[in-house]
Design a protein that fits this description.
The protein is mainly alpha-helical. It is built from 9 helices and 2 strands.
């Protein structure tokens, strides 16, 4: 078998593993097992469980495989998960901000808040509310919204870019003072 055809076969195997991983996740959600479990957890814990499941599916599917001439390792899986997390901040809109921006008080189950923007908003709103006297120049909702939709994505993409750079380049950058 030629090297080129082995690569094509390898791609189909990776695709099959991803499909099987997501089929298993879909089975857990459709059977309500995962939904009930996640709803019993606080927002951050539920989100961590879901991203650990996503990372396990990705690691199972592409771990050790070669993609674009690079062997996929844990740090690449982690970086891709961070990038997906960041994209979901903008794509999901499950945070309390959606209701607060409209002047409504949200009463939602924990599982709804277990989205990337939901978790960041939930904990930053809690933080800014506790220290309202320090951040008195604007409302906790506004500060939490800027933290969720401006600061957190920038920091997350920076972390992902560091993970994707080679270790040699990272050491050189820090030796130069970044």
């Amino acid at each position: 078998m030629s090297r080129r055809s082995r690569r094509k076969d390898n791609g189909w195997w990776v695709t099959l593993k991803i499909m099987l991983g997501f089929a298993f996740l879909g089975f857990l959600i459709a059977s309500r097992v995962l939904v009930f479990f996640l709803n019993s957890l606080p927002p951050l814990h539920g989100l961590i469980v879901m991203y650990l499941i996503f990372m396990a599916i990705i690691a199972f599917a592409v771990g050790g495989e070669t993609l674009f001439g690079r062997k996929i390792r844990f740090k690449e899986v982690l970086a891709l998960s961070i990038i997906a997390f960041t994209l979901n901040i903008y794509a999901d809109f499950s945070s309390q901000w959606v209701w607060l921006a409209e002047g409504k008080q949200p009463e939602v189950p924990n599982i709804v808040l277990q989205s990337p923007d939901g978790v960041i908003f939930y904990y930053s709103y809690d933080f800014y509310s506790k220290y309202r006297n320090i951040f008195s120049f604007t409302s906790p909702e506004t500060l939490a919204a800027y933290t969720t939709y401006v600061i957190a994505p920038v920091v997350l993409i920076f972390i992902a870019s560091i993970l994707l750079k080679s270790e040699r380049k990272i050491k050189e950058a820090f030796a130069r003072g970044v």
